[in-house]
Design brief:
The complex is a heterodimer of chains A (199) and B (480). With 199 residues, chain A is an alpha+beta fold. Chain A contains 4 helices and 4 strands. The chains are: A alpha+beta (199), B mainly alpha (480).
Chain lengths: 199, 480
């Protein structure tokens, strides 16, 4: 290349293009992010309010979309005790902080993100391995308080270690998992078969 | 300047002396990355191994954090390395830069010790501030985040002020703007929110816009400079290519961010936007391969530093295959629905981080070691050349082997866990115990040991290459 190079091969043309393309892409990203934040705030259609833990959450086929979606049903308060929106948020937040402080994401995936050594937690609340609705809460609680003692390895030998989770934290984690199961994840994980409940 | 073939810091300018410190820590962390990866790999095969002492979560966290940090140390080192040469000016604020290095290194040490010996804390803010933030790749506790930001600001001041006092070039302009973006994006990962969907939305701003945008541009500038140094490519050519790469990279990568927004509770339009733009992401990587290979060919591969050029070419192809092809394979939502959160991602991660980033950092280590010995001979007939060739071969064999075996495990998971099993926990564990998966993980472990062998050989070579060789370097022929 030299002074005679055509405009489309010149540094000046590509420098301007780079600046323009970057600026445009970033502006579009900002606009979409503002819209996404509005749609993803808890209490919206895709991400329900934290007080959803007071309700029965099921997972039903949506023929129009071609995949299953969470459905919020009758009252089914967590641990039999209905809580206010504020208390629900505090409980879910305790659970979320526990999930972070115990480093859950470096074995499990949440919404598919994390490590692949242990099962995905996106629909943990709805997983059929808890047996039935009546047993689920107490089984989850017992498991979190003493994971090796109540190991659910499905024959794999992979046991969750004892993470020193307190009773209060365990309640928070279960609330967090119940709330997370109500998020509309566009059908992820593929073809998930939930526990039968309330039918 | 001391005798050729002897390691002597008087061979280096101020920025380069600081760069060597960063490179040294990078190599130490590289070895740590491999060791903790091996421990985590063993736990897939023998789940009782170190259970309750160094659990998988800890090993895996140290494995990926050591990786992220050694990549960054490599980049920072590379920028300090080329700073005085590119700006034609003495580095501004070297003392502060040195202080920044020691502060950052001390912080990294404390963070790793806390990871290993404290590991976890109660579910409250204190844990997130002092122990572990629990968000993949950016687990470093909040106090360390703030420390990192301060040190990055010092680094940025060194770089920007030196260019201001010296001269601006295409490379330095891109570099400085890229550093602004790189540092700014880190802030998006420094807050707590209860809403996991919003948490992951911003978390991807850091992870994706680093790895698939700003880091790629960073290595683009490193490549541009290194091609001028090793083969004597003309500035006008490498800078024009650099602008093309920036346009294509940011043009595809910024909105390509949407491929992480398929399943986290974000709006539906991300399925189309993310799918479309991320499918374009391999294009700049093709441009990088064409550029590196074509220019090397123009110069008939005649170069001043054989190991460095070999690793630069390895970078061009590794970036294309690891980031481009392996990423493209699972980037469309119709496929990603089956593969997201399986060993497909681990396969892509291993090949991409090695191919795109480890390779070019290693190339810079070789550029640095040559200059440290007074810019001596690194061409044909280099004594002990088998070491760097075998290190390059073993590292490629190891990492490609791991990536292919993890991919097989991922395919098996997509079929058995997702397509057939209905993505339940029992389907997950059924897939984990299937012979295809188990065999793949055994082979992955074997290739992990091959990777370790390559890494150790590389370290040996970096310490020994060119030692006592008093021939001056071949000067890269200027292009006509």
């Amino acid at each position: 290349m030299n002074a005679m190079s055509p405009w489309w091969a010149s540094a000046g043309f590509w420098r301007k293009t780079a600046v323009l393309v970057t600026a445009l892409s970033f502006i579009v990203l900002i606009v979409l992010t503002l819209d996404s934040m509005a749609q993803m705030t808890a209490g919206g259609e895709r991400v329900p309010a934290y007080s959803v833990i007071n309700k029965r959450i099921t997972y039903v086929e949506d023929a129009a979309k071609g995949h299953k979606v969470p459905a919020i049903g009758d009252d089914a308060p967590l641990f039999g005790k209905a809580v206010s929106e504020e208390d629900a948020e505090a409980l879910v937040s305790l659970g979320k902080k526990t999930v972070q402080a115990k480093n859950c994401m470096n074995c499990h995936t949440l919404l598919g993100n994390g490590a692949y050594f242990a099962p995905d937690l996106t629909k943990a609340w709805l997983d059929p391995s808890w047996g039935n609705e009546a047993a689920r809460e107490s089984l989850m609680l017992a498991f979190l308080l003493d994971p090796p003692g109540n190991a659910r390895t499905f024959g794999s030998g992979r046991k969750m270690p004892n993470l020193g989770i307190t009773d209060e934290e365990a309640h928070g984690v279960i609330a967090f998992l119940k709330w997370m199961s109500s998020i509309d994840t566009n059908g992820f994980p593929n073809n998930f078969m939930p526990m039968q409940q309330g039918e | 300047m001391s005798a050729l073939g002897t390691f002597d810091s008087t061979n280096l300018n101020g920025g380069q002396r600081l760069a060597v410190k960063y490179f040294t820590v990078a190599v130490v962390l590289f070895v740590a990355q491999i060791l903790f990866g091996l421990l985590a790999g063993i736990q897939y095969l023998k789940p009782e191994f170190l259970h309750g002492i160094l659990d998988f979560s800890v090993n895996r966290m140290v494995h990926i954090n050591a990786m992220v940090v050694w990549m960054l140390y490599g980049f920072i080192g590379a920028v300090y390395w080329l700073l005085e040469d590119e700006s034609q000016h003495e580095i501004v604020g070297l003392k502060l830069g040195n202080l920044g290095f020691w502060v950052l290194t001390a912080a990294v040490t404390v963070v790793v010790l806390v990871y290993l010996f404290v590991q976890i804390g109660p579910g409250n803010d204190t844990s997130l501030w002092l122990i572990n933030e629990g968000r993949e790749y950016i687990e470093a506790p909040r106090w360390a985040d703030i420390g990192i930001v301060v040190v990055v600001l010092i680094f940025f001041a060194n770089v920007a002020l030196t260019f201001f006092k010296g001269r601006w070039t295409g490379i330095s302009g891109v570099l400085v703007l890229d550093l602004v973006a790189l540092a700014g994006l880190y802030l998006a990962g420094m807050f707590y929110t209860t809403n996991i969907s919003i948490d992951q939305y911003w978390w991807w701003w850091v992870i994706h816009l680093w790895v698939e945008a700003t880091w790629e541009v960073m290595v683009g500038t490193m490549m541009a400079w290194a091609l001028m140094k090793t083969i004597g490519a003309r500035r006008q050519i490498v800078e024009t290519w650099l602008y093309i790469e920036v346009a294509l990279m940011f043009g595809s990568g910024i909105l390509g961010l949407g491929h992480h927004y398929f399943w986290i509770g974000s709006p539906n339009y991300w399925l189309s936007i993310g799918g479309f733009f991320s499918a374009l992401e391999p294009i700049p990587l093709v441009a990088m391969v064409v550029h590196a290979v074509y220019d090397s060919g123009v110069h008939k591969m005649k170069n001043s530093n054989h190991p460095a050029l070999a690793w630069l070419i390895a970078h061009a192809f590794g970036n294309f295959f690891g980031a481009g092809v392996w990423g493209f394979m699972q980037t469309l939502p119709q496929i990603n629905m089956y593969t997201h959160g399986t060993q497909w991602s681990a396969s892509h991660g291993h090949l991409a981080f090695f191919g795109a980033y480890a390779t070019i950092n290693i190339a810079f280590f070789y550029v640095a070691i040559q200059q440290s010995r007074g810019n001596n001979w690194m061409g044909a007939g280099l004594a002990g050349a088998w070491r760097w060739k075998w290190a390059l071969g073993l590292l490629h064999m190891g990492v490609i082997g791991m990536s292919v075996t993890l991919l097989i495990a991922g395919y098996e998971q997509s079929f058995i866990e997702r397509a057939v099993g209905g993505s339940t926990w029992s389907a997950y564990f059924e897939a984990q115990q299937h012979p295809w998966f188990v065999q793949a993980m055994w082979w992955r472990q074997m290739f992990g040991w091959v990777t370790l062998a390559g890494t150790l050989l590389l370290v040996w070579d970096l310490l020994a290459v060119g030692k006592g060789d008093t021939r001056p370097a071949e000067v890269a022929a200027a292009e006509v």
